Request: fold
Amino acid sequence: MTGTPEDLAEIRASVAEVLDGQADLRRTHEVMVGERGYDPLLHELLTAELGLLGLVVPEHLGGLGLDVPAATAVIEELGARLVPGALATSLTAILAARALGPSAEPLLARVVDEQLTLAVALAEDGAGWDLGQTATRATGAGDEWALTGTKTVVPGAEAARVVLVTARNEGGELGVYAVDRAADGVDVRTHMTLDQTRRLSTVRLREAAATRVDAPGGDGARVLLDHVRAMLALESAAAARACLDLTVDYLKVREQFGRPIGSFQALKHRCADLAVAVAGARATADHLVTTLRTGAATRSHDAALAKLVCADTLMTVAAEAIQLHGGIGFTFEHHAHLFFKRGKSAQLLAGSAAAVRAEVAALAGL
Amino acid sequence: MTGTPEDLAEIRASVAEVLDGQADLRRTHEVMVGERGYDPLLHELLTAELGLLGLVVPEHLGGLGLDVPAATAVIEELGARLVPGALATSLTAILAARALGPSAEPLLARVVDEQLTLAVALAEDGAGWDLGQTATRATGAGDEWALTGTKTVVPGAEAARVVLVTARNEGGELGVYAVDRAADGVDVRTHMTLDQTRRLSTVRLREAAATRVDAPGGDGARVLLDHVRAMLALESAAAARACLDLTVDYLKVREQFGRPIGSFQALKHRCADLAVAVAGARATADHLVTTLRTGAATRSHDAALAKLVCADTLMTVAAEAIQLHGGIGFTFEHHAHLFFKRGKSAQLLAGSAAAVRAEVAALAGL
Amino acid sequence: MGAPVSDEQFRAEIRGWLQEALTGPFAEAVGTGGEGREHEAHELRREWERHLGRAGWIGLSWPTEYGGRPATLAQQVIFHEEYARAGAPGRLGHMSEQLLGPTLLAFGTPEQKARFLPRITSGEDIWCQGYSEPGAGSDLAGVRTRAERRGDHYVITGQKVWTSLAHLADWCFVLCRTDPGSTRHAGLSYLLVPMNQPGVTVRPITQLTGTSEFNEVFFDEAVAAVEHRVGAEGEGWKVAMGTLGFERGVSTLGQQIGFRRRLDAVIARARSNGAWQEPALRDRLVDAYIGLEVMRHSAVRLLASAGEGLSGLEASISKLQWATWNRSLGELAVDVEGAGALLTGPGYELDDAQTHFLFSRANTIYGGSNEIQRNIIAERLLGLPR
Amino acid sequence: MGAPVSDEQFRAEIRGWLQEALTGPFAEAVGTGGEGREHEAHELRREWERHLGRAGWIGLSWPTEYGGRPATLAQQVIFHEEYARAGAPGRLGHMSEQLLGPTLLAFGTPEQKARFLPRITSGEDIWCQGYSEPGAGSDLAGVRTRAERRGDHYVITGQKVWTSLAHLADWCFVLCRTDPGSTRHAGLSYLLVPMNQPGVTVRPITQLTGTSEFNEVFFDEAVAAVEHRVGAEGEGWKVAMGTLGFERGVSTLGQQIGFRRRLDAVIARARSNGAWQEPALRDRLVDAYIGLEVMRHSAVRLLASAGEGLSGLEASISKLQWATWNRSLGELAVDVEGAGALLTGPGYELDDAQTHFLFSRANTIYGGSNEIQRNIIAERLLGLPR
Reply:
């Protein structure tokens, strides 16, 4: 594997094939109402067997050494099927760790070595995703840190073995720390969620042992936030497309008044508008992948903008999907509502529309 | 005439008949590009001959003594045909004067006696329609006042003989004053306007002789502002309806792809949404008429809300009218753009959407 | 109870009665059974129907011989306003009173009226509606459920969906195809079918809220008496359309009070959690307020011109307005909550904002979808060609 | 000029050339002839076309034998970007270069190419487009203009509308019905008609801006040589559709620079007059920025996958995006101005915001209306049934 477009297409295709067999929407539907809320066997298959965690980890750390697009392609395929669990957050954390440079190499080596799934914990009550207001404290030095604080609405924590956490040291500096879920002083409480495909947890840390992942003086916390937004953007763009496909397929076969309802012009025009939105979201997500790949300085701007555009697009498409399906789209057994709920969680996580829009404006220098 | 619903319908019908003959849209199109920008003969006909200025002036002041809805019906009929000039502003000023009570009776008597057309001048550079920031000064006392200041974007002034002006006296109190256009120190400069059916003037006052119209200690300026908003609301609701009718009639006859384009479902659904908006605007305008008629305490709230809703509705309908007419709707000789431009002037006059929305929220106690 | 009362008297009476009932034996029923909460407190709400009936609050404006009570259109609105204001429970008798009753009054035989109407006004019988079918959706003329006449009975086979309250109902009014060769609007009949018989099976539909308001109803050689056919054989379409007109009737007006309560609750929440300070959210809240004012003025205007009831056209405009408005408010409610709205109780237990957000997606689908309403408005109000 | 240059070299070259030309003899032409300003500075812009042609900037990627110049797709985009950035004048040669040229390259005879293309690349000939007809609008297949063959000529009678530049053009490419019994797509031919002949009359259409970009063109026994028919007789539809594809081509990508300039101007105005402090307006401005970013990413994505050119589908998405975006920005521009935007200069002279506001209403109508684009996307991209 050298990371050519053909390699990339092959990786995407093989992941898609596995997911189509093991983690299609019907399976997501089953898994999300189970006790765990995710499929441990799928996690095992994609990590230990397929080695996805090592995909973009450098070769000298034991990984396959592929570039960013290999991981983002997998995030998209997971997103299109709304796969629950810590697979997307793991790849997101790995991408973020890569971007953090040498200081994160020990973590990356451990990820491959121990096949660690990861979650990313940023938000706090009161602070939300405003990094400047982070109140979780880190005490210690060098390799030995103890974290105290509470992180809320953490995706992936129910299925992750390590959680990346933002915290402030005694000097007031914000940093990124890795905490083992199983360590003393770590309490993960997973909630039932409106978006059943994405459980959220409260992570309480009381003098929990941690290692620092980012280099002092850097913008590690921001790197983490940008990558979480990128995850939401990529998932949403892929899900929006899948949801539109689902809807269009239905409109082609469903008949009313003696005609396929997809032949009614009012519905056609609405679908056309959705297709335009989906194309825009996809292009914006693609651009973000390029930004992450090249390490461009526009990362924060592009991630914020893409999360806003893609989450809104998914919400628009999914809301129309329910409406265009009519009564059947309102049933629990149908998939439309999964996209709808996923759209709302993508909108509300990692910053409200107002906050993210203001960030985009500031970062764009408007 | 006793003001029964039947009387009202009769007044509306007879005014509509005159306007259909003398002031239909085709005529508006001609008049608006002329030098004056309005039709003096129509003004003469509706005032001196039909006596519309006396319609709602109390009988003891020489008027017909009808109630508010008689005047608002005329404003609506003028609005539906986008009739330029000072007819609507005259009726608006008369309604406001009625609401001001005994202090305004001398003005009302003069209006009937001399067949005065009226304009209302509120806005100033910098202040806009924020009454609190009015800078025009009134010096004097009793019946003799002198006004100094500049009013901008004044509708109707090009065709009015008297202008009602808000000004602040030496005690800082805001009041309503009547200024004769022909008086010394009054300079009216009329501009060409984006909305060609509504010319706007700058009225410069330098020690101009004036009489006070409202009673000290009251909220005369607010009464005036509310009535101007009411005028914009009523005109817009009526124009929106006329514009939708125009468009629907076109869609019924215009053929493309071998069918009347009104049979295409996408266009039908858009027209249905417009019809819902028009019905809402109309109901809101009707409610405002009731408020003005009963002197309800909700006047400021209802006028602000109605101006917002009705102006936006006209803008929406007119924008769709151009689009649904296609190329022909983009030509100057077509009427669609007159509604479109009128919609924008209704939106931007008497307070921006943001300012008026904030007022509505405050007045509603939200 | 025969003499007409003034609107003020009427309002005072219903308000007083509701207050007494809802602070007394039915205190627990307050707030139950609203939209998306149809699954709540069935037993209590069934008793509530009887309580309402005994007090004479069912069948306003119906003839007194059937247990009705004289009431003007304005008073019917007042009833709905006060009912909503009091937070009284969602009506199990909604279909019976708003749909079947008016249909029987308009199309029923004297015997049918005498038999069924008093049991509606007394709150005893609960009815459900058998119109929609799988695969037909908004296209009611696509009914495929068959009813074959055998002597003095019809034998019914087919399937209905989106039947709310079917699991509680005593009777179902069912649109069936009695002429097997017919298509579309022709050949349908309107039958009254007892639910408690071997040929009827009810299966609840789980909705995206995780709860079940709606059901599938399977008819497998279920039986209805010929004398329980409303209207002539083959004229069921006309009868059903009459009912649809009533469905979007006067209760819409009273509904506004409930909407205002919802809006006020969302605004209060926004004020308490700081969302009100966010201009974009505040604008949306103010726009929701303005939209509700527009609906209120529209309703008053309709009421002033309505006389006997609302036409289908006015009802279509009203349905499109409120369904779309309420759906938007549902989304606004969770946006005001922010990310906290993503957490539910155990077992997918939803709070008011979450329930509103999810359930209101049905508003624009049921009772004639937005698309159907737009068709009606475009063709029948604006006269655009088919 | 034969050897390929790098993109950087190319950009430096065109940028330098434009700067020299537009600070020198063509300084007065800067900013003229944009959207809604087609009526400006005709003589100077005609000379500008020849200046462009002499410098070899017309016919990028066309064969050098017709005066073209080797240029990659990326370089064509660079040309449009730099052109917009420099504020260079609106192109009178737009139809010639973007529409007719590619059509002749694809469908023309060697003689037609040799005769017409060099006069396009030299900036000598100006062409206009004769497609739309009164009563046909977006339905090009409804063409009724007839062309009757008489010996080596066609004799043309009929009327075209929305013909921009007709009053300046030397030639018009006209879609005519050559088979009098035909309907719809069949029986049409694509003819090249000289404008300077007795049978052709041009009448300007006054638009809602008060200016005239567009014209009506009347053909009254106008003449075109049979050898100037492009494609076979009766195959004009296929030829014209090829041209429509080109129309929405690569220039769309360069257009973005112009959009950004417009947006920046509106934002600058909002900052200077205080509108930026108004959250609702600021949100709309930021959303416009975001919308433009999305269009930019879409364009880059298309470019990366395009190879030879854009497909009609991608072009439809792009057209719908930019037309709707630009129309919204036009409204935003006057809303930022506030009530002051209601005053014009004498003689209805419009400023930039007013021109943008009014003229942009045409964006969603011409070149295939939004409705036509939605039909195309729904049927050809999504595969929804007709």
